[in-house]
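Workshop exercise sheet. Pairs work together: one partner reads the sequence aloud, the other fills in the structure field after running the prediction. Swap roles for the next sheet.
Pair: D.N. / O.F.
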Amino acid sequence: MDDLPSADFLGFESLLTKPERDKLQDVRDFLAKEVAPQAVEWWNRAEFPHEILPKLAALQLSTPVHQGYSHLFGGMVIAEMTRADTSLATFFMVHHDLFVEALHAFGSEDQKTRLLQDAMDLRITGAFALTEPQHGSDVAGGMATTATRVGNEWVINGAKRWIGNGTFCDYMLLWARDAQTQGIRGFILDATLPGVTRTRIDNKTALRTVQNADITLDAVRVSEADRFAGISSFSDTRELLRGSRILVGWQAVGQQLAAFDIARQYALERHQFGRPIGSFQLVQDQLVTMLGNATASLAMMVRVAQMQDEQQSRVSGVEKAQAEHPGAGMPQAALAKAYTTARMRETVALGRNILGGNGIVTDYGMAKVFADAEAVYTYEGSYEINSLIVGRAITGISAFA
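Structure field:
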């Protein structure tokens, strides 16, 4: 298929700088060699490939914006990782774009000295412990995990659920309610501390390679030195979640590119009635719809990334030509996540349909893409919650508390 156009049908990759394009090709080469050939087996066995972490670290892609890359490049990296394996991309986002980003944004100088470089180089791994068994979308007001100050320590009690990387991580960014002030606090939790129990969530039908955990916290004592001093309210959480929500939009792009790749190749190779099924009008129409959805989603995410870059330039004092928009806030992130994941759902369903019965076994790759899409559709805010965030922005009326 070398002579066929790429799934980047409108050439958005050309908006990257030459060094960024070269680096993105390095990422593709790594994924093609080290990830894509094994991703289905990792998924089938529900095992995380720890052995790949040193090779992944060697790409030096941790929080790329802090290394001088654009948000557009960072988003395209997530799309490419997702295209190869959604689970690996999810691990990468949880560790780098939540845990490591929190160290950059909210860590003290002591915390950065102790942890930041090791985390960026994947010598230690991190998780983001926010969601609870009874609180997902309403965790801002309903957080039940508590932290009580006792001298120079905090005593933490509660439970967390769906914590990606939670079974094996070295540290977690743990969120808890201050028992005295009722404010929200963030802690760097050593996952091996007494009182921390981690249990893998089994029987998943999506993102099986990602190791999600139930976490229980029974009188866990954390030093004041491990409290994120830069976190004083839930609004700090929202800042991190805004960035990760945008990256999930990029994951939705990657899912669609993966589905298109598999479906097009299958349509060219699978013969029925004496010719490739890709020669039939109905199959071509489905492929075009898939490509259209992916292209529209990519276009939206490119614009969001440009807004992020323009916003960063204004903050740093560098003028951007006519950059008058206030930037990519939570409503923009919510719209991007809701729209792209809805298009993704249609795209992966069409791809599964093109493969017929072969679309429901992981041997051909499409079943994995189809199943993983459901997790992407749900996490970082469900479609409904993200829609209501946008609805509040455009009407000035909140439909939820």
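Discussion prompt: The chain has a mean pLDDT of 94. What would you look at next?
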